[in-house]
Amino acid sequence: MYVVGGVTGHTGSLIARTLLERGERVRAIVRGREQIYRWKDRGAEVVVVDFSDVLALSSVLEGAKGAYLLTPQSVYDSNPLEKWARQNQSIVTAVKNARLKNTVFLSSMGAHRDKHAGLVQALYDAEQKFKNAEIPVTLLRAAYFYENWIPALDAVHEKSALPTFLKPKRSIPMVSVKDVAGVAVDLLLNPADSSRVVELAGPKDYSAQDIIDILEQIMGKRLDLLPFSKGGWEEVWGEEELPDEMNTLLNETYDDLNNNKIAFSGKNVESRQGTVTLEEVLEKWVG
Predict the structure, then answer these.
(1) 240, HSE (Cβ side, Cα atoms, 13 Å)
(2) Cα dist. 141→17, 43, 111, 122, 265 in Å?
(3) What Cα–Cα distance (Å) separates residue 80 from each residue in 88, 94, 244, 246?
(4) Structurally, how many domains does the chain consist of?
(5) Which residue range forms the structural domain that includes residue 143?
(6) Which CATH number belongs to the domain containing residue 216 in this structure?
(7) Cut 0.90: pTM above it
């Protein structure tokens, strides 16, 4: 039986469905009872667990063949780094309590950095906690998700413009959640004898300008690119009424992405490349 966290999100839901389709038993972790019957109908065992509850999480992981885990994050979290650090410790302690030797943990490119790196700091913290606990784990460092652009597509439809916090021609590694899920399933079904780091990118890097070019071709009309300056970022965060610490983390994140500070390490890692292109995904979304 495999335990899958984050089944209400992009990667976890795809991983759970893929394992079920392969005939594997799945224990799906949800945070709200409203999701229980959806996954029970698909054949999964469903448990409601808060990732900060180490005793409950330890029990959920007991006896599993493997687990896909991640640290739940929200831009509306108060004291986010403190909250995420508690969740990381709970996850690592639960894995250790359950004596689980096959864990795939969703991390991010840039998580090898020990300096300020915005939202990625939480994943550096998680990686270090696994390392210090001497627990075997596969750290899956994924590139920037294509799906992060979904909210911006409303503006494309309504205003024929694509807002972005990235420099227009700044290309960064990106990847589809489909590829992330596919690689995660492969890693779960083919566990390593010791800890490993897998860095995953899509078939090519993309910039905001590339995205607008692709969208213009798909939609058959002229679109504008609206890059926000750093001051503009803060105005957007303010409109969303985000916590002050989150404003700082988001500023750091996009500043580092724009200056190539959040990137893959390429050192002592296994590098993999997905096959899904951004063109394929945008075609589906726009359609």
Answers:
(1) 16
(2) 21, 29, 7, 13, 10
(3) 12, 21, 10, 7
(4) 1
(5) 2-286
(6) 3.40.50.720
(7) yes
239 vs 184, which has greater pLDDT? 184
Comparing CA positions, the residue from 70, 99, 96, 53 lying closest to residue 9 is 70
- How far is it, in rounded angstroms, from Cα 81 to Cα 49? 20
pLDDT digits (tens, 9 = 90+) for 203-231: 999 999 999 999 999 999 999 998 987 76
Quick check: 197 pLDDT over 90?
Answer: yes
Q: How far is it, in rounded angstroms, from Cα 232 to Cα 274? A: 33
Q: What rounded mean pLDDT belongs to the chain?
A: 92
Angle at 46 between CA 11 and CA 50, to 5 degrees: 75
